[in-house]
Amino acid sequence: MNSYNIFDIKICFGHYQWEKMQGVINLMEKTNEITKDETIGTNNNKATFDNTQKSPGKGAGVTELAESSQEDIPDSDNFMKLYEESLKSIQEGEVIKGQIVQIGKEHVLVDVGYKSEGQIPIGEFIDQEGNLTAKVGDEVEVLLEREADDEGGIILSKEKAAKIKIWDDIREIYENNGVIRGIITSRVKGGLAVDIGLQAFLPGSQVDLRPIRDMDSLVNKQMDFKIVKYNKRRGNIVLSRRALLESERQALREKTLGSLEEGTVLKGVVKNITDYGLFIDLGGIDGLVHITDMSWGRVGHPSELHQIGDEITVKILSFDRDRERVSLGIKQLASDPWTDAESKFPVGQKVRGRIVSLTDYGAFVEVEEGVEGLIHVSEMSWTRKIRHPSQIVSVGDVIEAMVLNLDVAKKRISLGLKQVEPNPWDIIAEKYPVGTIIEGKIKNITDFGIFIGIDEGIDGLVHISDISWTTRIKHPSEVYKKGQEVQAVVLNIDKENERFSLGIKQLATDPWDEIPERYKPGTRITGTVTNVTDFGIFVEIEEGIEGLVHISEISTDRRGNPLAQFQVDDVIQAKVLNVSRKDKKIGLSIRKLDEVSEKDIYRSYLDNPQEATSNLGTLLREEMLHLEQQQKALAEEQEPKEEGSEDNPS
């Protein structure tokens, strides 16, 4: 039998194989010793035989041991075969276990039972924080990347072995419908990237039971997933968290359905918010809290009271087990506030509340959660004419009002805002009795008069007819401007209709009080024509005082229309016929004045014939000239008619 160097054998086998072969080598050494003893025994065969005969037990034992050793110990050929088989048992691409025997600056040496240790880059043992995770003696799983090179070394990989093992785990989890844990690393197109030891894809539709708006909020979170599909060759792994949640939800749903009963009070989580209510997750099954069942008070939108994720207590109002629909209520957890509204809000009591809504006809005030009252626009101010409540209040304002009426059956409360203050019209008559002279600014000018500010919210009206005794005013803006300070006299106060009448002309005496005395019938006046109408002419006798000369009181004019001889601004004389102080009218006559003149001429003629002759001759001459003018005018009118007759002979 050949002799082997123990060191060479150890190098060839490595630590794991060396431990296995150590016993064989020990037996080989014993065999060599026995072989030497047999050689010595041959030379002294007789002595040995004699000794054997003398001591049959001892000699038999050695012989049997030698025979046994020779049977158990392989020869050199068998030993080499064993060595070759140990090398053939490790193949490239195989994951095997090894032990760290040395840690260098660049590599870690791992004994895997090969003829030499394998090398692994030290970077595979550095964690994310830069710490070394390996130490001598640690057992690790590695992948044989490449067999022995020219120098007898082998290349190993810990990371690749881990990946291979992960794929095995993935296959096992997928086949057994198991769960795998991973960390969401980033957001990618269509979903999220997940680290499960390998890069995996989580589609956006599989993230949760409901759509997630903010995907970025899930990054760096650790979660459990189910493997939907995988392809090792392509390196694709698709995960689903929704499938896991659905299975959990289904189990919880069955449990919850068994405990749902009408009237039950339980807790839930706000899952979704719509314009018409809240969807509550009761544990595997959703229920709806309609907006009308959220509060006894006014709710503009469900989001005003709750947000997604809020845990709230609800009461089951109805449950359709067949359709699995659950109607929930929140306000039903408390009693209806209208049940004791009559005792809380008696008529005449002042209450405080918050403006919750405005309409064209008034403002709604919440005096208590679930109890609202209406302030009509007519009950907002004693003095101002309110067209819209926004002129006085705004939503959110806290105000004080008085209860005017209460109807519990219809759940209505009528409130008044102005009633909390005294009515200024109750004291205005005492403050400004009729005849009082007031002074104020013109706040508004209309076609029918001017409004003057008196007290806060109270304006007085000076009608256009009360601006001047004598001047005819077509529009108040001819005389006054907005903001102008004026004086006026209080004429009348109508508390019921809230009207305050003023007069400006009443500051002075009425000139018509003296007109009847100054212009008695028969008085001759001289005035200016201010207007010519179809029925007569108006003559201004003095400033602001006019008289009317009716057409019947104008001297007869043989030449045609008697009014044609008058124009505006003509200065004429007339005689006063009558005066009406009540109607403020003066009747004048030109005809009466002419008659008086003819009588005076005739009387003068009788008194002085010579002068009368002269006057008569003058009158005749004027009359003859007048006749000539009439004949000439008549001839001119007939000429066009004659020309028309010539053009159209009969």
Strand residue percentage: 25-35%
How many extended strands? 30
Largest sheet: 5 strands, mixed, barrel
CATH architecture label name of the largest domain: Beta Barrel
If helices are DSSP runs of H or I spanning 4 or more residues, what is the number of helices? 11
What is the spatial order of strands in the main beta sheet?
1-2-3-5-4
Q: Which structural category fits the helices and strands?
A: alpha+beta
Count of individual domains: 7
According to CATH, the fold-level topology of the largest domain is OB fold (Dihydrolipoamide Acetyltransferase, E2P)
Bulk shape: elongated
The CATH H-level superfamily of the largest domain is Nucleic acid-binding proteins
Give the uncertain stretches in residue-range form: 1-20, 34-74, 640-650
What is the helix fraction of residues, given as a range? 25-40%
Radius of gyration: 64 Å
| The CATH class of the largest domain | Mainly Beta
* Average pLDDT number: 78
- Head-to-tail CA distance between termini: 179 Å
Biased composition (Polar residues): 40-55
GO molecular function: mRNA binding; structural constituent of ribosome
Domain S1 motif: 93-159, 177-242, 263-331, 348-418, 435-505, 522-591
Protein name: Small ribosomal subunit protein bS1
